[in-house]
Design brief:
The structure holds 3 protein chains of 3 kinds. Chain A is an all-alpha fold. Chain A is built from 12 helices and 2 strands. Chain A has a two-stranded antiparallel ribbon with strand order 1-2. The longest helix of chain A is centred in the first third of the chain and has 24 residues. By secondary structure, chain B is mainly alpha-helical. In chain B, strands 1-4 form a two-stranded antiparallel sheet. In chain B, strands 2-3 form a two-stranded antiparallel ribbon. In chain B, helix 6 packs antiparallel against helix 9 and helix 7 packs antiparallel against helix 8. Chain C is an alpha+beta fold. Helix content of chain C is 34%, strand content 16%. Chain C has a 5-stranded antiparallel sheet with strand order 4-5-6-7-12. Chain C has a 4-stranded antiparallel sheet with strand order 8-9-10-11, with no helix packed on it. In chain C, helix 2 packs antiparallel against helix 3. The chains are: A mainly alpha, B mainly alpha, C alpha+beta. Chains in contact: A-B, A-C, B-C. Strand 4 of chain B pairs antiparallel with strand 3 of chain C, so a sheet runs across the interface. Chain B: It is found in: Cell membrane. Chain B: One of its GO terms (biological process) is respiratory electron transport chain. Chain B: It is a multi-pass membrane protein. Chain B: Keywords: Cell membrane, Iron, Membrane, Metal-binding, Translocase, Transmembrane, Transmembrane helix, Transport.
């Protein structure tokens, strides 16, 4: 111990300790990740990171910077985590088609493997939220529809509407519809807070609660029309439109026929 | 005499000896009703009301108007185990466990929307054809009253299920009450039995919705119809139709069959809508709690214009001497609607004052022949439509890739600029149509047949229109502007001279017209 | 103007044109058959209705173009009812149009005004009655009657008094007190600052005692939205900054305009939007109104942490939450 304490005040100690701490955190993290994905060897990971970096340099760096440090028109990706990349690229939002108000969901440019590689690369820059595993995402088993509905109405409906059909935000931004979104992507959106969406921390909205929300959304998506055509599930506006067109239209049609002289 | 005739005869005799109904029936079975599709719009409203009474009664058999908290254990899984009010739970019960319950709920709601649509369309018909003129001013006022009550009744019905959407509506209504100067918070606390939402409001509005207002409706509708009956229906101008007669079909059997049949048609169309189109899916909205809200929270369409006005209001509040006055609520929520409905109710009297016309009118105006009234109507309609569009601005914005901020600014500017434009355009349009009428009577109809003249030029053949048509286009009276003197015989300024001047000016604007064709004009043309 | 000129002459009601059914017995038979078919269709509709009510299962869903997958029972019940009603109407109208007399009838109108003689009689009767009652002379009776009629209206008004309590100071109070813990809604879990990442929001309510009950009227005033920003993003004065904790800021979720839940937070712009009337509040500037009809910022709740590190309220709201009212001191 004396040996160590002698160098206690050495000027290299602080940086060394910091490096050691970072290394420790890094290993713990990678070990933790490794435990959840045991099949992936360190070698395969480094290959994926390299592949991801190549893809990043080609497709993303012009906006996000050569080292993902961000630029004038795009944020830094250091520390956003694999979940963020998987959400943004996996739903086709990134790369953006144009610099409009908001990136929208579209057909993804990259295939699954490429998305995974990009995610690995960005995750390797700094720790951040990881992609939820299939084991975690077992919402059918771990979620509760009714509770999910209540959570959805408290936390999500104000933007995404009562039936998850989406809604308007300020200045042309919008909360997209959640119909047809993969459970994984919903989960990632909740933990990363993409674009206008806020983050829903695991302590204030537990993983189990997140799964409940997903289960409710999937139930709403699968719910058949119980009372006839759903009219978009956006509330009274479309109902008003229908009564002013089809409703009164049909009746005026009959009224014209009624008052017409028979031949 | 057959057996059937004998029985009918004795029943009729029995009734008549006790009521003396025969004399009345004799006169009224032959009552003449003019036939026109636009005369059926009010009937749509009447029939919707009957359908509302029938379907509403059905719903009360299961509906529990209580805000008592219950735990849901019904058939609809996505809500099971949640806390909710008994009102909401019983509405779910009607929707999912009572066979045909959802159908009846949808019939009730679609009928309510149709009721309001029909009232508005009927009102527009009456307005634009001048059917409100003497002697029908009272019926106009009753009609405006029915429209106003209809909005209230509809809103209360929308509020009863206590779902997230309707609770939000009640919250906004409470804010309007609370904004009343001096008495606001007192009235709010009385209405809600304490702080919002409390447990008293839904049982209370239930009584108003199913008893008080329907009773007033029944009384007003009865008077409305009795007056129509007694004053006889107006008729559109046409050959043989005068201010002194009414041309149409007798009540029995033709009109009775048609009107009775039309009731079933209205009911059938509402049932059809209720079969194929979902309305107010309260199970998706969830139970009400003040901490939750949905994007795109809207009222039903007949309240939408009010919500639109509230949305576009500027952020104005007066803070002084420890008191707050919310102009941002009072102006769009109470003052403007108050002015609109008062103006609407008083319009027949205002127009009579301007035109100085004190005679009875039973022949309807063609809207183009009264440009000022038509233009004023178009102006009011434009105002309301801009407000209504703003009430759905978020849905419109997301549907058409606009921003709510653009929509809001469009409405804020549009509500001031567009109505006057509508006025000017409509007035000019009316005058152009008058001119077209004049040309038609003078020169006949364009046949589309070209004839080559001996000199090589082409001329289109005009076919003279029928005498009936010519009469229809020229039967109207053209208003003469008032010329009220500003001074009396001795050259002294009369009291009310300014008022007279104003009245003269408005009257002149009211009387603007393209001179209609007279018999002399036609003769002159013939001489050519 | 032209009213003085001679108008074009009214040619009178045009001659009646007979229908085919009036002239041709075959057409008449055909019309009769058509009416019968319409009525028969109505009967079929009722049969469909009865069948659907009794035999179609509640759980049967079928695909229908335009409607999508829809509940068969609801659909066929409705269609059955619609057909049974619609075709009765159509049959009756078709009957009236094709087979009932269609010659237009002319009836005369009478002026609304009563005959002069009737009016004179009425005036006389009224005057006689009034004279007999001698209302004009007996001013004591008139005035006392006026007084009692005026007062009698007060009784029903007074009876409405017990509809509810007087507001008192109730609108100014919420359940937030100094030291009240912030708990998640729903879930009722206390929150530590470290639970919230930057950009995170949480819907919170004041903690209630074990077994306590939370009434909706409490939620209607107590609901709070918690937002975490980077502390440097705030543009607040010292007092307001002191009400935040490590970048976490808390606002009343009840809109200062009309009381809707303002919970629509845009993480990038730091704007809060009310979905009811689209008032927009800037979170970095203490919920200052930047768009829409709201006239006041959302009340801010001062927060800090307790000894266990959980977020608590420093003190109650310093102003009433929710929409304005007359007695509100908004200065």
């Amino acid at each position: 111990m004396k040996y160590l304490s002698r160098y206690r005040r050495h000027k290299a100690v602080a940086p060394l300790l910091l490096m050691f701490a970072l290394f420790a955190i890094g290993t713990t993290f990678s070990v933790a990740s490794a435990t959840t994905t045991p099949s992936q060897s360190a070698f395969a990971r480094s290959v994926a990171i390299d592949e991801g970096r190549q893809l990043f340099l080609k497709g993303c760096s012009s906006c996000h910077g050569l080292n993902a440090e961000g630029g004038a028109i795009a944020p830094s990706l250091i520390g956003v985590g694999a979940a963020s990349v998987d959400f943004q690229v996996g739903t086709g939002r990134m790369p953006m088609a144009d610099m409009s108000t908001q990136a929208m969901r579209k057909k993804p440019v990259y295939d699954e493997k490429e998305v995974a590689a990009l995610a690995e690369y960005v995750a390797s820059l700094a720790p951040g939220p990881a992609i939820p595993t299939d084991e975690l995402l077992n919402y059918e088993r771990d979620g509760s529809t009714a509770e999910g509905g209540e959570l959805f109405r408290t936390n999500c409906a104000m933007c995404h509407n009562f039936a998850a059909q989406g809604g308007a935000l300020t200045q042309g931004k919008y909360a997209p519809t959640l119909m047809g979104v993969e459970p994984k992507h919903i989960y990632e959106a909740l933990i990363t807070g993409p674009q206008s969406m806020p983050v829903f921390s695991d302590k204030t909205l537990t993983p189990a609660e997140k799964l409940s929300i997903i289960k409710w959304i999937k139930a709403a998506e699968a719910e058949p029309a119980l009372g006839g055509a759903s009219l978009g599930r956006v509330g009274p506006v479309t109902e008003g439109l229908l009564i002013w067109t089809l409703g009164i239209g049909l009746l005026i049609g009959v009224a014209v026929w009624l008052a017409m002289k028979a031949r | 005499m057959t057996a059937r005739e004998r029985i009918t005869g004795s029943v009729a005799n029995y009734v008549d000896e006790r009521t003396g109904a025969a004399a009345w029936m004799k006169k009224n079975l032959n009552k003449v009703f003019p036939d026109h599709w636009s005369f059926l719009l009010g009937e749509i409203a009447l029939y919707s009301f009957i359908i509302l009474l029938l379907s509403g009664t059905f719903l009360t058999f299961w509906f529990d108007p209580s805000q008592r908290e219950v735990i849901y254990d019904g058939d609809y899984q996505p809500l099971s185990g949640l806390k909710m009010s008994a009102a909401y739970a019983s509405t779910l019960h009607i929707s999912f466990e009572v066979r045909g319950g959802l159908l009846m709920r949808q019939i009730h709601h679609w009928a309510a929307l149709l009721f309001m649509v029909a009232i508005v369309v009927h009102l527009l018909r009456v307005y634009f054809t001048g059917a409100f003129r003497k002697p029908r001013e009272f019926n106009w006022i009753i009609g405006v009253g029915l429209l106003t009550l209809g909005i209230v009744e509809g809103f209360l019905g929308y509020s009863l299920p206590d779902d997230l959407l309707s609770g939000t509506g009640i919250r906004i209504a409470e804010a309007i009450i609370q904004a009343l100067p001096v008495v606001g918070s007192y009235i709010a606390f009385f209405a809600f039995g304490g702080a919002f939402p409390g447990e008293a409001f839904i049982p209370r509005i239930f009584t108003v919705h199913v008893l008080l207002l329907p009773g007033i409706f029944l009384a007003l509708i009865t008077v409305h119809l009795m007056l129509v009956w007694y004053q006889k229906h107006t008729q559109y101008p046409g050959p043989g139709r005068t201010e002194k007669n009414v041309v149409g079909y007798p009540l029995f059997p033709v009109y009775m069959a048609k009107a009775g049949g039309f009731f079933f048609i209205v009911f059938g169309v509402i049932a059809f809508l209720s079969a194929v189109a979902s309305i107010n899916p309260i199970w998706l909205y969830g139970p009400y709690t003040p901490g939750q809200i949905s994007a795109g929270s809207q009222p039903d369409w007949y309240m939408g214009w009010l919500d639109g006005l509230v949305r576009m209001a500027p952020p104005l509040e007066t803070h002084a001497f420890g008191h707050t006055i919310s102009w941002n609520i009072l102006i769009p929520g109470l003052i403007l609607p108050g002015i609109m409905f008062t103006g609407l109710a008083l319009y027949p009297f205002i127009e009579a004052w301007i035109s100085g016309d004190k005679r009875e009118h039973h022949i309807l105006d063609r809207p183009r022949n009264v440009p000022n009234r038509t233009a004023l109507g178009a102006m009011a309609l434009t105002f309301t439509i801009v407000a209504l569009l703003n009430g759905g601005n978020d849905i419109i914005a997301t549907t058409f890739n606009l921003t709510i901020n653009q929509m809001m600014w469009f409405s804020r500017i549009g509500i001031l600029v567009l109505p006057p434009i509508a006025f000017v355009v409509t007035k000019r349009l009316c005058l152009s149509l008058q001119r077209a009428d004049r040309d038609l009577v003078l020169h006949g109809r364009e046949t589309g047949t070209l004839v080559r003249m001996p000199r090589g030029e082409f001329v289109e053949i005009h076919e003279p229109i029928s005498a009936q048509k010519a009469w229809t286009l020229t039967q109207h009276e053209q208003p003469v502007p008032l010329e009220l003197p500003a001074t009396d015989a001795r050259g002294l300024k009369r009291p009310g001279a300014i008022k007279n001047k104003l009245r003269n000016r408005m009257s002149r604007a009211h009387a603007v017209a393209v001179p209609k064709v007279s018999a002399a004009d036609l003769k002159e043309i013939e001489h050519h | 103007m032209s009213s003085e000129l001679e108008a074009i002459k009214d040619p009178g009601v045009p001659a009646h044109v007979h229908r085919q059914a009036d002239l041709d017995p075959k057409a008449e038979k055909k019309a009769e058959r058509q009416v019968a078919i319409l009525f028969a269709l109505s009967a079929l509709g009722t049969i469909l209705f009865i069948y659907s009510y009794i035999w179609i299962s509640e759980d049967l869903f079928i695909y229908f173009p335009v409607l999508g997958t829809t509940n068969a029972k609801q659909l066929f019940l409705g269609l059955g009812l619609a057909f049974s009603l619609f075709f009765i109407g159509a049959g009756a109208i078709h009957w009236a149009k094709t087979l009932m007399p269609d010659e237009e009838v002319i009836a005369m109108r009478h002026e609304m005004r009563s005959e002069d003689e009737d009016r004179r009689e009425l005036v006389k009767t009224a005057k006689q009655g009034a004279a007999a009652a001698a209302l004009g002379r007996r001013s004591l009776i008139k005035r006392s009657l006026g007084l009692s009629l005026g007062l009698i209206g007060l009784s029903p008004l007074l009876l409405l008094r017990d509809l509810g309590p007087l507001p008192g100071k109730d609108l100014e109070k919420t359940s937030w007190k100094s030291g009240t813990r912030l708990v998640t809604d729903p879930g009722d879990r206390p929150i530590k600052p470290s639970d919230l990442e930057v950009g995170a929001v949480a819907q919170v309510l004041p903690a209630i005692a074990e077994g306590g009950h939370r009434a909706l009227s409490d939620i209607g005033k107590d609901a709070v939205l918690l937002i975490r920003l980077r502390p440097e993003e705030f543009q607040l004065d010292a007092e307001r900054l002191g009400m935040t904790y490590q970048g976490i800021i808390a606002f009343s979720k009840i809109c200062s305009h009309m009381g809707c839940a303002v919970a629509l937070y845009e993480q990038q712009t730091k704007h809060l939007l009310c979905p009811c009337h689209q008032s927009t509040f800037d979170v970095t500037r203490a919920a200052k109104v930047i768009f829409g009809p709201a006239a006041r910022p959302l009340p801010q709740l001062a927060i800090t942490v307790d000894s266990e590190g959980y977020l608590i309220a420093q003190k109650p709201f310093s102003e009433p939450v929710g929409p304005s009212y007359w007695e509100r001191n908004s200065q």
